[in-house]
Amino acid sequence: MTTTGRPASGRRTLLAAGALTAAALLAGCGGYSTSTGHGASAGYGSPTPSGSAGQQGPAALTTEHDPTLGTLVADGQGHTLYRFDRDSSSPSASHCTDACAALWPPELVGTDGSAPAPTGIDAHLLGTVTRADGSHQLTLGGWPLYRYAPDTKPGDTKGQGIDGTWFAATPTGDRAMPTGGPVMPSGGY
Predict the structure, then answer these.
(1) Which residue, 107, 142, 147, 106, is CA-closest to 125?
(2) What does the pLDDT read at residue 56?
(3) Smallest Cα–Cα separation from 102: which of 188, 18, 9, 12?
(4) Domain limits, the chain
């Protein structure tokens, strides 16, 4: 049934696209809400839906090689994982919520400890932090991990350097930096 000449599914698609655009604009303006997670715990559990975008969490963590950035951490589908410099690693705390989390979905995990071991990453560096909504976000070296919604293909690194605060994560939780120094995309996000 249509009310404006457009099927209901088309209206939902337009609404979703508008919400993502609004989230991108807010994130580009530095708008983010703060919340603190409490207590990192060792290990990580089985996957649960990741972030507000409703994407599935990782089946496992792995490493991928990027010709510019080197070795990066990826989820089980090969999507690059990022860290946010406005978060903290000691103690672990996530400060990306609401509109920020729509653009940068947190990498969420369950708490039952049943996820497979990571490939190419020291399992002792993994943990979780409890977010303000009670969900558990994966941490690496204490840093909470996120996906970047515009990274649509495995291996994409479109989020690298955004606002000088978002960086692809290395297997130790450090920031990935291109050979020859940082490259910071400007505006648009």
Answers:
(1) 142
(2) 42
(3) 18
(4) 8-168
